[in-house]
Design goal:
Blueprint lengths: L1 E4 L3 E9 L5 E10 L3 H18 L10 E5 L3 E2 L4 E3 L8 E3 L1 H9 L3 E5 H12 L8 E4 L7 E5 L2 E3 L20 E2 L2 E2 L2 H4 L2 H17 L17 H9 L3 H25 L3 E4 L1 H5 L1 H15 L2 H5 L2 E4 L6 H11 L2
Parallel strand pairs: 1-4, 4-8, 9-14, 14-15
Antiparallel strand pairs: 1-2, 2-3, 5-6, 6-7, 9-10, 10-11, 12-13
Helix pairs in contact: 3-11, 5-7, 6-7, 7-9
């Protein structure tokens, strides 16, 4: 069973092995995230319904895997006040679910869980050294090193978004010029807002912001303008692509991975990112390490959240 706990919604998933490194998703329930106590009760109730609906008993369940935003302590199974889950203060969610269903359970933060998913079932299958980058609203990462998930001393390994790549730039992870600042939906939005503001102040119109609504700019709106042929929008994405190359060159030089899997915005716009990113990698990273590393889009697409939670359970 998989449990994906998000800031706005949760999902419970039932999956079954379909062969080596394959899993079949057989059932799923989604519901809104409310306050902590009510959400936990809803998770338990949804798990019970899925079990009953599929004619299972608790003894049929191998494990429960939980994916949740951090910070959390995966060793003790405790959720520790994630910013997107107010009221979830030191919640022993692993013990709660393990006690309720009488099966083993485990938890990892969502980036680590997605890394497990892409490694076990997706684009990183068959590798021993892999990195996964979310590249969504923010930039999180999970590391598979020497054939196992690496979480660090206290679950803080892989926080690549916090690395500062420039003295100035969009803010991410509370740091101007950070990897997340340049390579996330929020960061692309900030880059676009700054570029549009400059032009509007100089009296130069921007076709995709005709009413001057700078606050309404999103990474998606910039991408739409880019594919429609707008030069400014393309340059904004080019800035992100070049800094992606800078950040990945550091990662390649440090952990020497076989593959780097990138989700969300990169996966949807690989043809824009890859050439500029690769130019930087070829210039900045160690040639022998760069030669053996592939940078690929995530393979699990919109289903990655389901596979992420199931992967935590499958890898107990």
């Amino acid at each position: 069973m998989g449990v994906d706990i998000g800031g706005t919604k949760c999902a419970v998933t039932y999956g079954r092995s379909a062969g080596p490194s394959e899993i079949e998703v057989l059932d799923k329930e989604s519901f809104a995230t409310t306050d902590c106590a009510a959400t936990i009760e809803n998770i338990k109730a949804a798990l019970h319904r899925v079990i009953e609906r599929n004619s299972l008993t608790c003894s049929d369940i191998y494990s429960i895997g939980i994916s949740c935003g951090g910070p959390l302590d995966s060793a003790s199974g405790v959720v520790m006040s994630p910013p997107n889950l107010p009221g979830w203060d030191n919640v022993p969610i692993v013990k709660i679910l393990s006690d309720e269903f009488g099966v083993k359970a485990a938890i990892h933060n969502d980036a680590n869980a997605c890394a497990l998913a892409e490694w076990t079932f997706g684009a990183g299958k068959g590798t021993r050294n892999m990195a996964f980058l979310t590249f969504g609203t923010g930039l999180g990462a999970g590391l598979i090193l020497d054939g196992r998930l690496y979480t660090g001393t206290n679950d803080n390994a892989g926080e690549l978004g916090h690395i500062r790549l420039a003295d100035f730039g969009p803010v991410g992870y509370g740091k101007a010029g950070s990897f997340e600042g340049f390579c996330s939906g929020s960061g692309i939005r900030q880059l676009a807002q700054s570029a549009v503001r400059e032009r509007l102040q100089m009296g130069v119109p921007v076709d995709w912001c005709p009413d001057g609504d700078i606050e309404g700019i999103t990474a998606k709106k910039v991408a739409e303008a880019m594919y429609a042929g707008d030069a400014l929008a393309r340059e904004i994405y080019a800035i992100s692509a070049r800094y992606l190359g800078v950040g990945l060159s550091v990662l390649i030089d440090i952990i020497n991975p076989e593959v780097i899997v990138i989700g969300s915005i990169y996966a949807r716009n690989e043809e824009v990112f890859k050439p500029l990113m690769q130019q930087v990698l070829d210039r900045e990273s160690l040639p022998l390490a760069n030669k053996v590393c592939r940078v690929v889009p995530a393979a699990l697409g919109e289903s990655i959240g389901d596979y992420a939670a199931l992967s935590v359970g499958a890898n107990i």
